[in-house]
Specification:
By secondary structure, this protein is an alpha/beta fold. The chain has two domains: about 220 residues, Spore Coat Polysaccharide Biosynthesis Protein SpsA, Chain A; about 60 residues. The longest helix is centred in the C-terminal third of the chain and has 28 residues. The radius of gyration is 25 Å and the shape is elongated.
Length: about 300
């Protein structure tokens, strides 16, 4: 089979009831496009028969390929497998639970044709429980402010990318939702498109609130990589300057207290010990920054 222009990458984990109706709907949409395509199913260690059903689809449909994990590694690993194994110039990701609408794919491709490199779906009218929607809105707001990438829905799987802007990305943790951020680092043009989000018909959600805390921790990593990976001395240096400023304030307080009644002994003032401690930590941070500079050169 010739190399397709479009790879639609479907992430599947225990969605056996959704596979057939999703595949029928997806092939119907893609067959109407004037573009060569493949459907790449990423099986994230399913145990409900999804693996076998996708294998049957691959036997009967030359457009279908399947990558299966031996166990469940999580969504980020599945997305990375899609990037590594998708052969198209354009990669479109979607979930296998039928909540993403395949009919939105032509709209995503239209925006790519307008010159954008990343088109990110926005579940503006999201059909999920409030216990999922509210933490997600907070996390999205924080991510947008910290990274400077103005998206409303980083967690929507339905996204379209030009291969060249993400092919060198290496994901871990919960980093899959930060792919638009990585793309922005290489100068990608990014836009957001409201997409249809449907009620789940089969199966149940694999979402857990613990994911939100992991996302926020990964956000710290992304911010540090994006802002200081080539100049770590700035990060450590700014922190050191802050500690030294506090040390000077506490030292000044100690001197003032020494000059005013009841004239306490400076060595008995805990603020003096705190000032010395902060100054020493500041020196250590500067040294750590210098070591980091040496390690990346």
């Amino acid at each position: 089979m010739a190399t397709p222009k479009l790879s639609v990458i479907v992430l599947v984990y225990n969605e056996v009831e959704s596979i057939d109706p999703l595949h029928d709907e997806l092939t119907g949409v893609l067959a109407g496009l004037d573009v060569s395509y493949e459907i790449l199913y990423i099986d994230d260690g399913s145990r409900d028969g999804s693996t076998e059903r996708m294998a049957e689809l691959a036997l009967h449909d030359s457009h279908v390929r399947v990558v299966s994990f031996r166990r469940n590694f999580g969504q980020t690993a599945a997305v990375q497998a899609g990037i590594d194994n998708g052969r198209g110039e354009i990669l479109v990701f979607m979930d296998g639970d039928m909540q993403n609408d395949p009919h939105d794919i032509p709209r995503l491709l239209e925006r790519l044709d307008e010159g954008y490199d990343v088109v990110s779906g926005w579940r503006k009218d999201r059909k999920d429980e409030a216990s999922r929607v509210l933490p997600s809105k907070v996390a999205n707001w924080v991510i947008a402010r910290v990274t400077g990438v103005p998206l409303n829905d980083f967690g929507c799987t339905l996204k379209a990318y030009r291969r060249e802007v993400i092919e060198d990305v290496k994901l871990y943790g919960e980093m899959h939702r930060f792919i638009p951020v990585y793309a922005s680092w290489v100068g990608a043009r990014i836009m957001e498109l409201p997409v249809n989000h449907r009620q789940r018909v089969f199966g149940h959600s694999k979402y857990s609130l613990s994911r939100t805390s992991r996302v926020l921790l990964d956000l710290i990593t992304v911010k540090l990589l994006g802002s200081y990976s080539t100049k770590p001395i700035y990060f450590f240096g700014f922190a050191a300057f802050g500690l030294w400023a506090l040390a000077l304030v506490f030292a000044a307080i100690v001197i003032i207290q020494k000059l005013l009644p009841p004239y306490p002994y400076a060595h008995n003032n805990p603020l003096l010990l705190l000032a010395v401690f902060l100054a020493i930590v500041g020196v250590q941070l500067i040294l750590m920054g210098l070591l980091a500079e040496l390690s990346i050169r």
